[in-house]
């Protein structure tokens, strides 16, 4: 398996690629993809980076691990391929967008349109075995994606980090909050959303206001 990642990220991540843990991780992932059904497709594992280049990153959304159903995951957190039914969390994301910024509920759950505007849709774990949630956790991916969050924090300014749920909120310690914006709320999953921890967070309008204040183009959610 080749690490096919957009050249804009390579100067910042090459040291990670050379570390022993990353080589072990890639060996594990190669073995899994040969012997098991895994997601996303191998050529989309680094899709978040290939669709959102380093210099374009304005907003970071952090997920946990990819969807593990057939045809769902496409390498962008919370995103599913065109024509795939929207999972519950994504439904609640779109409902909040509809209320918050008056954008109609979309037909497609493919969030590539966000990535193309500078939203890094980063799962903490980039691969998963089919129908086995969390099956590739604690194999090294979290070390890599934590390094990604740190390098964005160190090398950029004014990025808006959207941390949804307890898992994502724990990543705040990797972010320099003196130079970046962190918006936190409950997770969009039904369990959290139905308890009142998600709806009404207005993260989409708040993120756009912060971008506008910095003179940056707002995201068309």
N-to-C order of helices and strands: HHEHEHHEEHEHEHH
Describe the biggest sheet?
A: 4 strands, parallel
Number of strands: 6
- Percentage of β-strand residues: 5-15%
> How far apart are the termini?
33 Å
Which structural class fits the helix and strand makeup? alpha/beta
Form type: globular
Helical content, roughly? 25-40%
Task: Tell me what the structure shows.
The protein is α/β, with parallel strands linked by helices and 221 residues long. It is globular. Strands 3-2-5-6 form a 4-stranded parallel sheet. A two-stranded antiparallel ribbon has the order 1-4. The mean pLDDT is 97. 37% of the residues lie in helices and 11% in strands.
Features:
single chain, 221 residues, alpha/beta, 4-stranded parallel sheet, two-stranded antiparallel sheet, 6 strands, globular
Sequence-ordered SSE layout with sheet pairings:
Elements: H1 10-17, H2 20-35, E1 38-39, H3 47-51, E2 59-63, H4 88-101, H5 112-115, E3 119-123, E4 128-129, H6 141-155, E5 160-164, H7 165-169, E6 181-185, H8 190-193, H9 203-213
Parallel strand pairs: 2-3, 2-5, 5-6
Antiparallel strand pairs: 1-4
Quick overview:
With 221 residues, this protein is of the alpha/beta class. It has helices at 10-17, 20-35, 47-51, 88-101, 112-115, 141-155, 165-169, 190-193, 203-213; strands at 38-39, 59-63, 119-123, 128-129, 160-164, 181-185. The model has no long low-confidence stretch (mean pLDDT 97).
């Amino acid at each position: 398996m080749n690490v096919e990642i957009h050249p804009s990220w390579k100067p910042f991540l090459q040291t990670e690629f050379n570390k022993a843990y990353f080589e072990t991780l890639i060996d594990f992932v190669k073995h899994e993809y040969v012997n098991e059904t895994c997601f996303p497709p191998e050529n989309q594992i680094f899709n978040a980076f290939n669709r959102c280049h380093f210099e374009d990153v304005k907003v970071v959304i952090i997920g946990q691990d990819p969807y593990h159903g057939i045809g769902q995951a496409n390498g962008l957190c919370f995103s599913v391929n065109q024509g795939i039914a929207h999972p519950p969390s994504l439904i609640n994301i779109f409902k909040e967008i509809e209320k918050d910024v008056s954008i109609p509920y979309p037909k497609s759950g493919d969030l590539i349109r966000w990535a193309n505007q500078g939203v890094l849709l980063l799962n903490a774990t980039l691969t998963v075995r089919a129908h086995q949630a969390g099956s590739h956790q604690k194999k090294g991916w979290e070390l890599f994606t934590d390094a990604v969050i740190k390098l964005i924090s160190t090398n950029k300014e004014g990025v808006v980090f959207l941390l949804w749920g307890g898992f994502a909120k724990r990543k705040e310690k990797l972010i320099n909050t003196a130079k970046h914006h962190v918006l936190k709320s409950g997770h969009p999953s039904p369990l959290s959303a139905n308890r009142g921890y998600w709806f009404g967070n207005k993260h989409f309008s708040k993120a756009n206001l912060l971008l506008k204040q910095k003179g940056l183009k707002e995201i068309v959610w």
